[in-house]
Amino acid sequence: MIRSYLFPIFLIVSVSILFGQALKLSILNEQGMVGAGFLPSLLSVFIILLLLIDLFLNFKNKKGDHKSKKIESTSLLKISIFVLFLILALFMFQYLGMLVSLGVLILFILIFIEKNSLIKSVIVSLLIIGITFIIFEQLLNIPLPKDLFA
Questions:
Q1: For the chain, is the Cβ count within 10 Å smaller at the N or the C terminus?
Q2: Region 18-29: what's the mean pLDDT?
Q3: Distance between CA 115 and CA 121 in Å, rounded?
Q4: Is pLDDT of 3 > 60?
Q5: In this structure, are residues 22 and 41 in contact, taking their beta carbons and an 8 Å threshold?
Q6: Which residues pair with 34 in a beta bridge?
Q7: Which residues lie closer than 8 Å to 109 by C-beta, 6 or more apart?
Q8: Residue whose C-alpha is closest to residue 73's, from 122, 3, 22
Q9: What is the rounded distance in angstroms from the CA atom of residue 86 to the CA atom of residue 106?
Q10: pLDDT tens-digit series, residues 95-127
Q11: Would the pLDDT of 134 be above 70?
């Protein structure tokens, strides 16, 4: 039961530290425009409020059935697999570029975590890569990081 409170409390402490760091940045710049600290401060406060609401709701609805422990262990496994794939994608990022790394990450997530079919996963991955390329490279003229050999 106490385990369900540890992670939100850890996140609240972590985000509070980030909020303290964000307050060191200027929220407004000299021209009165939004500064570098505005968005991190706003998001930190928003995340802390959501975590507090989650803690309150968990505390209010104490349920200790065995079914939730099974779901919790399955979720933990999925989160662990996701973090592993994310770390692998970050390492591949330098060598394969952003688009290929993003495609491989999405493909692995769809196949191994979401349990989608290979064909459907490949199609969705290619669509996301294509949309990302069109938005950033073509419409916004923002170059995406290339691979080591480009």
A1: C
A2: 86
A3: 9
A4: yes
A5: yes
A6: 28
A7: 82, 85
A8: 3
A9: 10
A10: 888 888 888 889 888 888 788 888 998 999 999
A11: yes
For residues 105 and 89, the answer to whether their CB atoms sit within 8 Å is yes
**Per-residue CA distances from 148 to 43, 92, 105 (Å):** 34, 10, 18
The structure tokens listed for 95 are: 């060598």
CA 39/CA 20 separation, integer angstroms: 13
**Tokens read off for 35:** 């500064």
What are φ and ψ of residue 28, in 5° steps? -125, 145
Q: What pTM does this model have?
A: 0.51
Higher-pLDDT residue of 129 and 149 is 129
* Six token digits for residue 57: 């709701």
DSSP string for the chain: -THHHHHHHHHHHHHHHHHHHHHTS-SB-TTSSB-TTHHHHHHHHHHHHHHHHHHHHHHHT----HHHHHHHHHHHHHHHHHHHHHHHHHHHHHHHHHHHHHHHHHHHIIIIIS---HHHHHHHHHHHHHHHHIIIIIIS--PPPP-TT-
